[in-house]
Specification:
The structure holds 2 protein chains of 2 kinds.
Chain A lengths: L3 E4 L10 H22 L1 H4 L1 H22 L1 E2 L2 E2 H31 L4 H4 L5 H31 L6 H25 L8 H12 L14 H5 L3 H14 L6 H25 L6
Antiparallel strand pairs in A: 2-3
Helix pairs in contact in A: 1-6, 3-4, 3-6, 4-6, 4-7, 4-10, 6-7, 7-10, 7-11, 10-11
Chain B lengths: L3 E4 L2 E9 L5 E10 L4 E5 L6 H8 L7 E6 L2 E2 L4 H6 L1 E4 L11 H11 L4 H14 L15 H13 L5 E5 L7 H16 L3 E5 L3 H7 L2 E6 L2 E7 H6 L3 E8 L17 E2 L5 E6 L4 H10 L4 E6 L2 H10 L2
Parallel strand pairs in B: 4-9, 4-10, 7-8, 8-9
Antiparallel strand pairs in B: 2-3, 2-5, 5-6, 10-11, 12-14, 12-15, 13-14
Bound molecules: adenosine-5'-triphosphate and magnesium ion.
Chain lengths: 273, 309
């Protein structure tokens, strides 16, 4: 059979501008994720609201009443920013890790892999999906506990940026976990052995500057410390670290994970044989 | 009218696939598929058909060699190459909890097609497949055959220039198979280039113009079906009659290995020194009124058998 032949050019979707095609694809991924999040709302939206409410009541109101103030605010006010950040961290991570794993399991991801969707489009689409999940789970809880503790957001720009950058960081981490996992039991590994310990030692419940050495120094190697500290500053104006430096650390880690996910996607890691 | 030169829908050059466990599923394969061809890719189970197709569609990495789709390298310019083709994979690959309409909308979105356009293109096809009333139901509520129909519809909403189907009609009843054949024939008539793998040789003979045979990962035959059959030493024809005929009545045709089949048609074997015209004449003389004569799928079976000996 010959390779060349003559024919008249025909109009085809591929002549559609690359950018507008990728925007549609990105929107589609975000929409697909949103549909899934809404479909399983009992798993995606309700638990974080219940958890943050229980933590606020038990630790903030009951135990916090005995502890008194910390860094010039009530204990309840002190822990709430960290609790909200925990929602952002867990929901972003879990969304991508489980979504990618499920789509790999039922092979529906093949339809995206064989489609002309750019790797950046895929990453941004899944990130947007995480933002939707964080908003759905986080907005209701935030309004509830901010009202409970009488918190007014102090720095809106910082507040929004911290949520988005944290969401991005853990969405990329979850994405990498989803690519790497070949079985469902490989999904909880990172949350159980890495995220939960880092969150607990991330200064959500205590002021890390009051820790004895070497724990205080070690704590600054925990990225969640920077996230919680920045977010706490944006909400109640309390900080233990230079905010610019915290932002640089968090943004740098996010960029690193972004690059890693992009490279993994380009090589087809976990998706192509 | 001004004419421009475009490249082959599929051009495969010295392509091999070695899996992680070291198994070589495809070995140094080269072939081209021309615009408008309807090619069947035949081969025994495990011959490497799906492995080859997965490389063409970008789902498998290529171990060595080059694959171009309408001139675009699938590895180096994947976005352009992928935008030309639609793939119906061998295995069902839906999220079973998704609604039927969402399956189509998500898929269309990956190709930059708006939801409105997707539904506009899908509606007549869904209607033909009797799925229109079910579009708000989850995919899990569909039967196996309906899921395969949906996979085909998902491909067609792309309006692809090249359609690749990996065993589209496996395990389907004759009615759904016929619907799928009808759709494929219509698309082919409109100019779509199609590649199909199947173990149903009747289907292959009915639909396809070209045949590629893959054996142990190597191409052992690459021709038009007509040429390939011409080259056979013996050719089988399937003849149906206007009235019912028994094996006994075919007694005088033993030199043609005449045999009544379960479907009521008779099968005749014509050697290279015999002539089909002569057979028809003899049947006529014997008083058997012929309704239809067609090359039997035995011929492809024979081709496959010879090529994979
Ligand atoms: N991911 C994989 N890892 C290792 N070996 C594989 C993998 N996928 C397929 N193979 C092997 O490659 C060979 C070809 O498989 P392939 O699925 O391409 O065959 P096929 O021609 O499509 O068969 P069938 O007609 O049964 O669908 C088989 O021996 C199979 O075991
Ligand atoms: Mg196969």
């Amino acid at each position: 059979m010959s390779t060349k032949e003559t024919t008249t050019p025909i109009a085809h979707p591929s002549t559609q501008s690359f950018l507008s095609h990728q925007m549609t694809a990105c929107y589609t991924i975000a929409y697909k994720e949103s549909v899934r999040i809404v479909r399983i709302w009992k798993m995606t939206v309700v638990p974080p609201i219940v958890t943050v409410f229980l933590f606020s009541v038990v630790f903030g109101q009951i135990i916090g009443g005995k502890i008194g103030g910390i860094s010039g605010v009530s204990y309840l006010q002190f822990i709430i920013p960290g609790l909200i950040m925990n929602i952002v961290i867990n929901e972003s991570f879990n969304n991508n890790a489980s979504s990618i794993m499920i789509d790999k399991y039922n092979k529906s991801i093949e339809s995206m892999v064989t489609a002309p969707v750019h790797e950046l489009t895929i990453l941004f689409g899944y990130f947007a999906g995480c933002v939707v999940r964080v908003l759905m789970a986080g907005a209701i809880s935030s309004v509830l506990v901010f009202w409970l503790a009488g918190i007014m957001v102090q720095h809106w720009f910082l507040f929004t940026y911290t949520i988005l950058i944290t969401c991005a960081l853990f969405s990329f981490l979850g994405f990498i976990n989803g690519l790497y996992a070949t079985r469902f039991d490989e999904i909880p590994t990172i949350p159980t052995f890495i995220l939960t310990p880092l969150s607990f030692f991330g200064g959500v419940f205590y002021d890390i500057t009051t820790l004895p050495e070497p724990w205080r120094t070690i704590s600054w190697y925990n990225p969640i410390v920077y996230i919680v500290d920045t977010f706490r500053y944006s909400t109640i104006g309390v900080t233990h670290h230079d905010i610019t430096e915290s932002l640089i650390v968090v943004t740098a880690i996010t960029s690193g994970l972004f690059l890693l996910s992009y490279c993994l996607l380009r090589t087809g890691y976990g998706l192509k044989n | 009218m001004e004419q421009t030169v475009i490249d082959a829908p599929i051009s495969v050059s010295k392509v091999s696939k070695t899996y992680k466990d070291g198994f070589r599923a495809v070995k140094n394969v080269s072939f081209d598929i021309r615009k408008g061809d309807f090619t069947v890719l035949l081969g025994l189970n495990g011959a490497g058909k799906t492995s080859l197709i997965s490389m063409i569609t970008g789902l498998n990495k290529i171990s060595s060699g080059v694959i171009q789709i309408f001139g675009d390298d699938i590895t180096r310019s994947p976005y352009r190459a992928k935008s030309h083709m639609a793939i119906m994979p061998q295995e069902i690959n839906f999220n079973l909890f998704s609604k039927i309409s969402d399956v189509l909308i998500f898929h269309g979105g990956y190709y930059g097609i708006s939801p409105e356009k997707v539904m506009q293109r899908a509606r007549p096809l869904l209607k033909k497949a009797r799925l229109l009333k079910k579009i708000d139901q989850p995919v899990s509520s569909l039967s196996g055959g309906m899921k395969r129909m949906l996979m085909l519809i998902r491909c067609l909403i792309q309006n692809p220039k090249l359609l690749i189907l990996d065993e589209p009609t496996a395990n389907l009843d004759i009615e759904i198979r016929k619907t799928i054949w009808e759709i494929l024939r219509a698309e082919h008539k409109k100019g779509m280039t199609t590649v199909l793998t199947t173990h149903n040789l009747e289907e292959a003979q009915l639909l396809c113009t070209n045949v590629l045979i893959l054996h142990h990962g190597e191409i052992v035959l690459d021709r038009s079906i007509e040429d390939a059959i011409q080259s056979l030493e013996e050719k089988f024809y399937s003849v149906s009659f206007e009235s019912k005929i028994t094996q006994k009545q075919l007694h005088g045709f033993s030199s043609y290995h005449a045999e009544m089949r379960e479907d009521g048609k008779a099968s005749f074997c014509i050697r290279s020194d015999q002539d089909i015209g002569h057979l028809i004449y003899k049947l006529h003389l014997a008083g058997h009124k012929i309704a239809h004569v067609a090359p039997s799928s035995h011929q492809l079976e024979q081709l496959l058998h010879q090529a994979t000996l």
